[in-house]
Amino acid sequence: MELLTFAVLGLLVVVAAAAVGERLGVAAPLLLVVAGVAVSLLPVVPTVEVDPEWVLAGLLPPLLYSASVSVPTMDLRRELSAVSGLSVLLVVLSSVVLGFFFSLVVPGLGLAWGIALGAVVSPTDAVATSIARRLGVPARAVTILDGESLLNDATALVLLRAAVAGAASTVSLWGVAGSFLWSVALAAVVGVVVGRVHLWVRTRVHEVPVTTALSFAVPFVAAIPAELAGASGLVAAVVAGLVTGSRGPRVLSPRARLSDAQNWSTVEVVLEGAVFLLMGLQLVGIVTDVREDHAGVGRALLIAGGALVLTVVVRAAYVAPLLLVQHRQAQRGVEMRPLFADMLDGEPPRRGRRRRTTRPISDRQRERFRARVAYGIAYLDHLLAHPLGWREGTVVVWAGMRGAVTLAAAQTLPPDTPSRSLLVLVAVAVAVGSLLLQGATLPRLVRTLLPGDGTGADQEQRTRLMTLLVQAAQTAEPGDRVAALRAQRSALLDARDGGDYDSAVLTQALAVLDADEIAMELRGRPPAPRSPATPATPGSPARPAPLPG
Predict the structure, then answer these.
(1) End-to-end CA distance of the chain, in Å?
(2) Which residues contact 103 (CB under 8 A, 6 or more apart)?
(3) pLDDT score for 533
(4) Which of 35, 202, 337, 428 is the most exposed place for a label (fewest CB within 10 A)?
């Protein structure tokens, strides 16, 4: 009964923080951390200790899954080089630099344990970076932050395990690299399989509440087998979410996707709030442990301050050349754009063995070649239309906040870790300090550096997309409105996969089509069948869906 009471009170605090934060213009996670610290100071509140597995295996998989479902896969594909570098190379670099720092300032710690703590505080947190997503940060910067925070946990946790093992014995570099590749590759396979099976099952279940309830199990169905096989359960949950977000609009009904979005938004609010509230509640207990061990709270806070500064400096040192590379790619795109345009109307290169007649080019080969060229043109246009300058780079650096992963990973340090209580407090202080300092100042920074920036598509794209929707509606049989909506949705998703439009305008247009189909259902017209191969039900005359704005 006591646990239930605290759970209900915690839920009320989460709801209150969300409501108050919206009114005050302050991110709810920041209020929850402060509220957790304040509540833990009350004499009637016992010391809160949470098993880190509850966070790593219970809270993070659904949160990461939900975040990955909403990430536009085409945007993530475009930024894959930047995301992979930030989620792997930057984590390793930060861990090593911080490892040297910790080994110098903590007597008797050693480099291996220092790198272990560096791995704990290196990854940015998907829940924490959600603060940036709500501030109107440009779409490319948001995609980079989202992709980094979704994928860097695997790097940090593998490096943490390797550093802990290295403190007790010799661990080879190749062993660590092999462990990381196995962890990520196997997790990706598990995530793809679970995501596809999940969608296959849901296309055969007609009750929307049942299919939504089924989606709640997906992150755990992906994460648990991956962890048992020695892979990253968090990456498996992320990949399952990416598959669901990419293929879902093609196979799930609008009502099912709307139900998913609404219910998962509620889950996100509750679980995000629980993560940050628990972070604040545990802080006092961790400080008490440090005092009992006579490790020195002030010393721990000084070390945490130095580590926080280092994380920002190393991140800035990495992002600066990354922006330079992006700038050079954009300049190169200006030069290559005419060449790609000529290739679009040309023939694909012939393939053949030496001293033999080359094989004739099939229509399918021509189509695939032109699709690749068209994607290259769309990618170059995207780089030119959305450049990443020093302003966006500054936001990317400052928005890289720490959060729940750091808190949970710190508490997985073995009991025999030298100065364990001190290290845990340093990690938690870095996470809390990052949230309070960077999270509280990020809105002002965004308003100063990016005034008037938005994430919507321009009017030219809206006009082209309207033309596309009109043409798609005309391909359906006259009078068959459901078939027209299906044709328009298919055209939208093909445009999404081809990278022809910004994800914001495509998402808005898809929402309009979904609303139109749901409205037909509410007026008593039968909905479109789930299977794309099933004939559509006749309805009112076809008309193109309007675009918002």
Answers:
(1) 51
(2) 109, 110, 111, 113, 114
(3) 39
(4) 337
Six-digit token string for 89: 């190379």
* CA dist., res. 5 & res. 540, Å (int): 53
What is residue 122's DSSP assignment?
S
The answer to whether the CB of 242 falls within 8 A of the CB of 290 is no
Cβ distance 386 to 142 under 8 Å?
A: no
CA distance 528 to 537: 7
Q: Report residue 543 as tokens.
A: 């008309």
Q: Copy the structure tokens of residue 328.
A: 């050079």
Please tell me the distance from the alpha carbon of residue 65 to that of residue 264, in angstroms, as a whole number: 10
Cβ atoms of 145 and 399 within 8 Å: the answer is: yes
* Rounded Cα gap, residues 184 and 195, in angstroms: 16
DSSP helix, strand, coil percent of the chain (3-state; round to 5): 75, 0, 25
Show the tokens assigned to 108: 């008797």
The whole-model pTM stands at 0.82
| HSE-CB for 397 with a 13 A CA cutoff | 24
Q: Once rounded to an integer, what is the mean pLDDT over residues 59-85?
A: 87
CATH architecture of the domain 2-321+403-449 equals Up-down Bundle (1.20)
Q: Where in the chain is the domain with CATH 1.20.1530.20?
A: 2-321+403-449
Structure tokens at 210: 């049942």
Alpha carbon 386 to its chain centroid, in Å, reads 20
